[in-house]
């Protein structure tokens, strides 16, 4: 389950974000968005997303796009596994501070908080079922969730760039 910074003051409320188009929310370094794929079993749209490290490495993930407040609230809850090259992206338009938690989330996740310029602001590994908020610490355009530990394994760090 996901919640906005305002939800910290209202414990029972959930984020009501205003998702925009993929290009509006994140854009792309190359000027094109990721390749559209078949819908995921969850019913969400899927896209190919890339992370380019400052060392020049390119890492590709197939991500489900959680656009609506309901899709974002559900996120990756109740999933038992996530393949190493899979993930979920949560776009926010306009950019805003957000916080995520791991309610009913059974797998560890890396949360990559993405700035409006498509650079990664921070990477946090979240513990399954932990209800402590993981805040963005600044306004962001998207959050990418990938399997826990994968960012460190691939050398993905703040300052790296995301496109989809």
Describe the structure.
The chain is mainly β and 164 residues long. The chain has one domain (2-163): Protein of unknown function DUF192 (Jelly Rolls, Sandwich), CATH 2.60.120.1140. It is 9% helix and 37% strand. The protein is built from three helices and eleven strands. It has helices at residues 22-25, 69-74, 150-154; strands at residues 2-4, 36-37, 46-52, 58-65, 86-96, 98-100, 109-114, 120-126, 134-135, 140-147, 161-163. Strands 2, 3, 4, 5, 7, 8, 10 and 11 form an eight-stranded mixed sheet that branches. Strand 3 (46-52) and strand 4 (58-65) form a beta hairpin. The longest helix is centred in the middle third of the chain and has 6 residues, at 69-74. The radius of gyration is 14 Å and the shape is globular.
Please outline the helices and strands:
Blueprint: E1 2-4, H1 22-25, E2 36-37, E3 46-52, E4 58-65, H2 69-74, E5 86-96, E6 98-100, E7 109-114, E8 120-126, E9 134-135, E10 140-147, H3 150-154, E11 161-163
Parallel strand pairs: 4-5
Antiparallel strand pairs: 1-6, 2-3, 3-4, 3-11, 5-10, 6-9, 7-8, 7-10
């Amino acid at each position: 389950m996901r919640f906005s910074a305002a939800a910290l003051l209202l414990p029972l409320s959930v984020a009501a974000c205003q998702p925009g188009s993929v290009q509006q929310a994140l854009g792309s370094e190359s000027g094109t968005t990721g390749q559209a794929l078949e819908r995921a079993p969850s019913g969400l749209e899927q896209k190919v997303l890339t992370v380019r490290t400052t060392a020049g490495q390119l890492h590709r993930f197939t991500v489900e796009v959680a656009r609506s407040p309901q899709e974002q609230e559900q996120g990756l809850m109740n999933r038992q596994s996530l393949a190493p090259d899979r993930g979920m992206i949560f776009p926010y338009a306009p950019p805003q501070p957000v916080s995520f938690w791991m309610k009913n989330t059974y797998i560890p996740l890396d949360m990559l908080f993405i700035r409006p310029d498509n650079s990664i602001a921070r990477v946090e590994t979240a513990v399954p079922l932990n209800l402590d908020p993981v805040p963005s610490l600044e306004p962001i355009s998207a959050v990418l969730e990938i399997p826990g530990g994968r960012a460190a394994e691939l050398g993905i760090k703040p300052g790296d760039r995301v496109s989809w």
